[in-house]
Amino acid sequence: MITNKAIEAFRQIETPFYYYDMALLQQTLQECSKQAGLYGFQVHYAIKANDDPRILAMVRDYGFGVDCVSGGEVKLALDAGFAAEKIVFAGVGKTDREINLALDAGIGCFNVESIPELEVIDALARAKGVQAPVCIRVNPDIDAHTHRYITTGLEENKFGISAWAFDELVAALRAATNIAFKGLHLHIGSQITIMEPFKLECKRALEIVAKFREAGFEVTDLNLGGGLGVDYDYPSLNPVAPFEAWFGTVAENLPVGHGQTVHFEPGRALVAQCGHLISRAVFVKKGKERKFVILDAGMNDLIRPALYGARHYVENLTSRGGKLRYDVVGPICESSDTWGEGLLLPATSRGDLFAICTAGAYGQVMSMRYNQRPFAKAYYSDEILK
Fold it and tell me: What is the rounded end-to-end Cα distance, in angstroms, of the chain?
């Protein structure tokens, strides 16, 4: 929740900007750590969700590892003080330079997405005289019932190795001389708000573990990825993601063998609700049948709505007038630069402050300079509310 004290502080700050509620972030990290700890689960923060230095520092201090999908993210995690052995490196297009960087750093695990990648990592590790720790990302062919742009576990997605390639994969693993096989990696998608897909993931994971065991490969690390969703519609009612339900569902449906460790890679679930994009109404424009509120924050600051129709709760922070319906839009010269149509909001005037909520994940990290607009700065509750 954005307090009145915060709103008064916002009046003095040039918009648009990102505002991070550090107390809520701490509460979220505490809950995730507590619930994961009940079962001995290991958590790696998906750094692609938000790479803000203050957020990374708090995540690190709670003892989480990092899930990376590029060499740049591996370097960022190392520079931010995360232990190399807690870094896992996924991604379908790892370059030789990125693989060598990770090998030299001694990261905890490569999550390998294809047989050609496995062969390249083996060759590069052989050239260095080291063993590369590897989990095989297996495509579980599970429909997570989420947006098609963030579904990753179907058979024909670009991610992971599908069941039909199992025999070829086993042959490649047996031929590899510098691969240290650790286990399996599965990920079925993002923004999953029901537990049923996770139950199916557990069932499929057990089937795949058995198949690898039959082939002579013992699975010590079982990485179930991330995907836990957050409440974009009513963020103030559900500020912390349902970690208890998520980890509890997995614990109930996935017996863990002796010496086996289960890993998770939440990103959005950890940081989404603590972030808000704060903006001002530049103009209120009357159309023949509709009213428009034009904000100074646009798709360059938060691209999710323009990219795949995502919706964020939009709040007028400063008006207490009677409710009217508005189309709330941004300033960018693209018709997709829209925050919402027909939103019921307090009567709005030029200069009113707005919050675009649940913007802590895939917001600031994906921002750009389109239309030559400057990057939005970041401000933190523990600094501006002193």
Answer: 17
Within this chain, do residues 107 and 236 fall inside the same structural domain, yes or no?
Answer: yes
Amino acid 340 reads G
Give the residue numbers spanning the domain of 72. Answer: 22-270
The 3-state DSSP class for residue 185 equals strand
Distance CA 117, CA 134 (A): 11
> Count of residues for the chain?
386
Number of separate domains in the chain:
2
Helix H, strand E, coil C: the string for 76-89 is HHHHCCCCHHHEEE
Q: What angle do CA 330, 331, 337 make, to 5 degrees?
A: 45
| pLDDT tens over the chain, length 386 residues | 799 999 999 999 999 999 999 999 999 999 999 999 999 999 999 999 999 999 999 999 999 999 999 999 999 999 999 999 999 999 999 999 999 999 999 999 999 999 999 999 999 999 999 999 999 999 887 754 544 543 444 445 556 898 888 999 999 999 999 999 999 999 999 999 999 999 999 999 999 999 999 999 999 999 999 999 999 999 999 999 999 999 999 999 999 988 999 999 999 999 999 999 999 999 999 988 999 999 999 999 999 999 999 999 999 999 998 999 999 999 999 999 999 999 999 999 999 999 999 999 999 999 999 999 999 999 999 999 88
Which of 243, 270, 297 is the last residue in one of the domains? 270
Q: What is the CATH number of the domain that holds 11?
A: 2.40.37.10
| Domain limit, last residue, from 241, 270, 299 | 270
Task: Give the residue carrying structure tokens 């994971």.
Answer: 205
